[in-house]
Amino acid sequence: MNRSISLACAAAMIVSLATGVTTASPALAQDRIVTDRPDRPVTAPDMPRWITLGTHGGPVSNPLRSQPANALVIDRDVYLVDVGDGTGQQLAKASIRLGQIKGIFISHLHFDHTGGLGAVLGLRLQTRQAGKLPIYGPPGTKELVAGLVASMKPGSIVGYGIVGQGYDDPMSTVEVIEITGDQSLPLGSMTVKVRQNTHYDYAPGSDMDRRFKSVAFRFDHPARSIVYTGDTGPSTAVEELAKGADLLVSEMIDLEAVVAAIRRNSPNANAPQIENAIEHLRKHHLAPADVGRLAKKAGVKSVVVTHLAGDNVTSLDTMRFMSKIAPEFNGPVVIANDLDKY
Question: What's this model's pTM, rounded to 2 decimal places?
């Protein structure tokens, strides 16, 4: 778990001393996930692994972290879960080849979670990857992908600049499956469960609710269950989705740091714009204590925290986050870095 282990372990020790709450060492998280399931014997290559390709939540970019993207790895197959800006580069750093990608899951259509999709699709086209790539996402995903594919058309005609040797029609390289927000999908050795979360607050059944949804995913494999919250506020639906999961990959927001970053990067923003941003951040994301409460209510075995928006996360920030999570949840918790593996 790389650098995050030492930071989180230090934080856990400080929390234990300061609050009397004992938090299991994050270094034990992988051991617990593997050994707590003796009823599910599995060989190492088949054990699903989660790579946090990008751990920085938008909208402001960060020099040290890429935007939200993850890789679910099962043997040699890879499923991307959100594809923020920089995903293509992060795949190279993680030694994941384009041909290994068997599908993409998109939690919602905010740009920090979709900004790298065009690059991944374009690189697949250019390197002539075989077959259609399935893209699973909420309503609006077909429109998003259609726009990206249309933007790829000129490049597909040019190809490498050799007369008569362009690429395939970009539309023939993708297949979009829109998900409603409350369903289960069989996918190879897995079952993928989807639930609508609270990142948006459109009235249920309204036109905007039908047109746009934000969802969380649960990946149930015979060897391991992993839940990804996507962006969400406190949500009973996500709690139910995560019940008993081996690993919860949860978003988190540092409200003060994000607002400060917005003010620095948008100095001309007026007061109503700032207030709207604050309302969105407070209602539609999880504070550190919210992450702990979600993990406890769901009874998960281990937690990885990602989507760290705001300033660069220091060891002191990690300790501060852990000190707020630990009183709510006493299981293993890790604050993720880019390219960590779990």
Answer: 0.85
